[in-house]
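Standup notes
- DV: blocked on the single-chain target, sequence here:
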Amino acid sequence: MVPSISFPVAELAKITAVQSYEERMLFVLLLLRNPALRIVFVTSSPVDPAIVEYYLRFLPDPVDAGARLDLVSVGDPSIGSLAAKILARPDLVERLRVDGATLLPFVVTSAEAELATALGLPLYGAPAHLARLGSKSGSRQVALRAGVPRPEGAEDLFSLDGVAAAIATIRRRRPDAEAVVVKLDNGFSGIGNAIIEMDGLADPLTASRTTFCAGDESWPTYGPKVVAGGAIVEELLRIPGLKSPSAQLRVSPGGAFEVLSTHDQILGGPESQVYVGCRFPAAAEYRATIVAEAQRVGAVMAGEGVIGSFGIDFLATPAGDVYLSEINLRMGGTTHPYWMARLAGAARYDAAAGELVRPGGGRLCYTATDNLKLPGLIGHTPADVIGRTDRAGLAFDPASGVGVTLHLLGAVPEHGKLGATCIAGTPLDADELYTRLVASLSGR
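- DV (later): unblocked, structure below
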């Protein structure tokens, strides 16, 4: 497992404690329930032993599972591609050569593809040359091919003049549009978005009334990113009751694909553009619709040769209209909570109902986030947070299928930040668990 978050360093630096995000993929340790499996998990920095012990406790034999786990640290906490860090260490490349293994990455770029070649391992992920399918422009083009609606807009824009011309076209076609959103082609989690008000549109574009979703962004920094990497512009839908559900899919090496889950995204930031967390499953009123649209997209992606997991974000209106927002050709913010709930709860996904079902028949719902920030936790250890959650009676109980699982614990000491998946039998109970967790860790 190489959870390499290979995105531009300038964008990664906008995420608090992004160096710890590699830990989100520790859910794969629960796969050690299979006694024939061995996992080599590589990270930029060492993982706190208390965190490893925490994940192994979800298994029936933690000692045996631990004996089949090899944790490898590059010893480089800098922000940047883990795959690139490994490639810079020939000694480490030699150490990681394992016969009969498969390389599982978070995302596939040229660095992960080069690492797979260096290790002589098959890569379970989309080939690097297909990365464009997961860009914002590529997403719009895939939606068009799949026959899935998308917001009014334009893609493949590599200049501010091109963005301005596209906005003029949107204004002509959608005279009632109040605003547009410009999205950097390779942005993620909404932090590469900029909102321009139609009634504040100006010439030059940089004089327009603009809200950048990243607080330290401005036209002098944003404009060059458009030129270098491309962008799209779309009408910003300001519709009361608008929701942003998502779907996770998985494509096998043979080309078969399946919808793994649906979620309702929890969004924050300007105009709810920034990903904060999620709820599983997506609301019943549009769950079947987004599954059907996701299957159309899945057919196109599988036909292109995509392998592995990816996500699709949608927009759903109260009137029943659904639009594709973007495709994330990688694991994402919904990957960890889904697999933690499924594996820790010994659940299976019922595709017909779109729910996780326990062996006894009960269902699992959850509320999850990567962005629980509590300043009072700064200076505390992961073991402190795990212990406080246990003593509060909130820890996940495999017998009942109710409780909290924690992740991103390596971010606690310096930033007071962690992630949590609050699992229960109903959405309301999952939300209540989250409220109790925040109160407990806040000392209330």
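- Follow-up: The CA atoms of residues 38 and 68 lie 5 Å apart.
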